[in-house]
Specification:
seven-stranded antiparallel β-sheet; 31% helix
Length: 127
């Protein structure tokens, strides 16, 4: 599966600012790294469709995606959830709800990764 690596500025500066301030409607996703078992923190925008919260990977097969697949117990800020991957055929309405929330910055990712299958998506259940 494809992946768009974030540039240095996004990894080292922007993500930290977004997590500290909630910039761009973001909240902090915390997952457990597969190998080290240490926490990984990522700013994410969380759409809600039909009363269910979702995670959408704008950049494709990101490390956080692999970590969620290995351990589906995640946190959004201080709330705990269990993530379940959404089948590709069901991602369209979720991605459609996500894109306007995330803003113009994500549009470039969809030009590079245009298919729903390129964007792993997870439903979140309280846990």
């Amino acid at each position: 599966m494809a992946y768009i690596k974030p540039p240095w500025f996004v990894r080292k500066i922007f993500n930290r600012v977004a997590m500290a301030t909630g910039l761009g409607n973001s909240v902090t996703l915390t997952v457990t790294k597969r190998v080290s078992k240490q926490p990984q923190h990522i700013p994410v925008v969380v759409p809600e469709v039909g009363g269910v919260k979702y995670l959408v990977s704008t950049r494709g097969e990101a490390e956080w995606v692999k970590n969620v697949r290995a351990d589906p117990k995640v946190k959004l800020d201080d709330a705990s959830y269990v993530a379940t991957e959404v089948p590709v055929a069901e991602r369209g309405p979720i991605i459609a709800a996500y894109r306007p929330l995330a803003g113009k910055v994500v549009e470039g990712y969809w030009k590079q990764l245009p298919a729903d299958e390129d964007h792993p998506t997870f439903a979140l259940a309280p846990g």
